[in-house]
Amino acid sequence: MALCRSLFPVLNQKKFTMKRFIIIGLWIILLGLLQQVAAQARLLTEAELAAASIYDNVTEALQEKEQVYRLNIRQQNYYSFTPDLCELVNLQFINAMKNKITTISPEVARLQHLQEVTFRENELVELPAAFYELKHLQQIDFGHNHFTELNAGFGKLRKLRVLQLDENKIRSVSPAVKHMKGLHALNLNYNHLEVLPAEIGKLKHLQTLALSHNHLRELPASMANMKELQTLALDFNQLTALPEQMGKLPSLQALLLGHNQLRTIPEQLTKLSSLQLLDLSSNQLTTLPANLQHLTSLRTLLLAGNNFPDAEKERIRKALPQAFIQF
User: Fold this and answer.
1) Cβ(250)–Cβ(227) under 8 Å?
2) How far is CA 77 from CA 65, 167, 270, in A?
3) For residues 79 and 123, what is the distance between their CA atoms, to the nearest angstrom?
4) By percentage, how much of the chain surpasses pLDDT 90?
5) Do domains 43-117 and 239-327 have the same CATH topology?
6) How far apart are CA 109 and CA 296, in angstroms?
7) What pLDDT score does 5 carry?
8) Can you name the CATH fold of 239-327?
9) Is there a smaller number of Cβ atoms within 10 Å at the N or the C end of the chain?
C-alpha cells in the first residue's frame, strides 16, 4: 500500500506533464493557423501588388497557392474558369481575356480578395450568383462577350469603380445600378440599348459614361444629377431630342452627340460652363442656341453633316472666337 501511495504523485506528475505538452502543441498549431489566416486576410497595398509576381502557368500557381496574387491566363484556350483556379484564394488580379470561356465556376466566391478582373473577348452569357459576392472588386472588364443585360447582381458590388461591358448584346440596365455608389466609369458602348432607367441618375460619382453605338431614342432627365460627370458619349444613337436638364452638369467637359437625329439643341446646354468638346456632327440641325457665348470653356465644336445656312455659321463663329469649329 505504501508503494502504491508513493507511485501516485509520480503518475499524477506524468499526466500533468503530458497534458501540458498537448496544450502547448495545440496552442502552437492554433497560433500557426491564426497567422496563416491573418496573412490570407490582408489585402496587398497597390505598391505591393504591383511588385508581386504574375503567374501565367496554372500548374506552378497551384503549387504555390499562398504566394499567388496576380494570375494571367490570357489566350490559353480556357473554356471555363474552373474550380481549381478558385483555390488561389489570395488572388487580387486576374487577366483571362481572349479565351473561349463560357462559364465561371460558382467556386469563384472563394476569391474574396479579388479587386480587378478582365474577361474581355470570351463567350460569357451570364455570371454565377456567387460572383456578385466579391465585395472588394474595383475594376471589371467583360467587354466583347454575350451579355444581354446589366443585371441587378452588379448592384451588390458597392466598391466597384470601373465597369466595362462594351461590345455585348445588352438591351436593358437594371434599376439596381443605383446601388453602385462608388462607380466612376461605365462603358456600355456597342450594345442594343433603347432606354435607360431613371435610376442611372443615382450614380453621383460617375465621371465617364460611354453609350456610343446603341439604339437610344431618349435620355432620362435624372442624368442631370450626375454632378461629377466629365465625359458623356452618346454618338451613333437615335436621339431626336435632349432633356433640358442636361444643362445642369457642371463638371461636363466632353459631350459627344454626333450621328443622331437631333433637330434642336436646348438653350440650357449653354450653361455647361466646363464644356471643352461638343460633337454635334451628322444630325439634322439648322441652328444652335442663342447664347453660345456663355460656353467660355469650349475649344472644339464639331458641326459637319448638318444643314446650317451661311448666316448661322457666321453667327456661331462670332459667338465662339476661342473655339475650333468644323462645319
Assistant:
1) yes
2) 22, 21, 52
3) 9
4) 87
5) yes
6) 50
7) 53
8) 3.80.10
9) N
